[in-house]
Amino acid sequence: MYLINCCKLKNNLFPFSAFVIFVAAELGITAGAHRLWSHKSYKAKLPLEIILMVFNSMAFQNSVIHWARDHRLHHKYCDTDADPYNASRGFFYSHVGWLLTKKNKEVLSRGKTIDASDLYNNPVLQFQRKYAIPVFASFCFILPTLIPMYLWGETFNNSWHVNLLRYIINLNVTFLVNSAAHIWGYRPYDKSIYPAQNIFVSLVALGEGFHNYHHVFPWDYKTAELGNNNLNFTTWFINLFSKIGWAYDLKTVSNEMVRARATRTGDGKDLWGWDDKDITDKDKEYTDILNSKTD
């Protein structure tokens, strides 16, 4: 707060630009690495893929390929020793501790069983991975620092440190999905699993806190039953690009399927998303695909 207050504000553009970069970076995780590339819950045309790759690079949470591969493993073996951010080991471990320790041998062995061929074969993601150092340096640190300096005369010290604060907030907001949303909240869809409905996480993480629903139906592009855009800005973002045809084949779950799963509270089978080898034909049959190319 001190850094923001001491900035030479010109029409309040500097703190506003930091907030815009925060939202863009978060969308690179939520709409990009998470809902598009980890779960294949919708498809994106090349221009949107490039936008999301750039946004994701602003967040700098490793390459999308690495992030999505680990996230599929997280869903497949949620909160077990094979889960990279196992919440059964406590808040600190699932929040950031998993990054400070060596990967469990179960994570390493089970990780080899996760199909990530679509990620490795994606040219946009290949580009990000191949040129990781200049891409992440440019979009996460250099440009967000230089733009306020040259457009409205901000000092290097303020511009650099406020962007660094923005980056730290982006990291911790994402980490809250793995930690807080696996510990605190309601579990209306499956009471036997750690992931919970956490309104606070939904608010700060642009709709990612409806986590009990998401772990039951990981292929639903809304990651929530109601698609409440007031707490689910990511869904609003995807819907916006769906209207211009850049996002398509949006997968969602029918009311009947939600009620049936909530009634039986789950059968213990976890999926990483669409095309997981264990997803049933019946699950696919009752999934609604919006804005399909075949429509």
TrEMBL record:
It is a multi-pass membrane protein. GO terms for molecular function: iron ion binding; stearoyl-CoA 9-desaturase activity. This is Fatty acid desaturase domain-containing protein. Residues 19-218 form the Fatty acid desaturase domain. One of its GO terms (cellular component) is endoplasmic reticulum membrane. Belongs to the fatty acid desaturase type 1 family. Pfam families: FA_desaturase. It comes from Diatraea saccharalis. One of its GO terms (biological process) is unsaturated fatty acid biosynthetic process. It is found in: Membrane. Its cofactor is Fe(2+). The keyword Membrane applies.
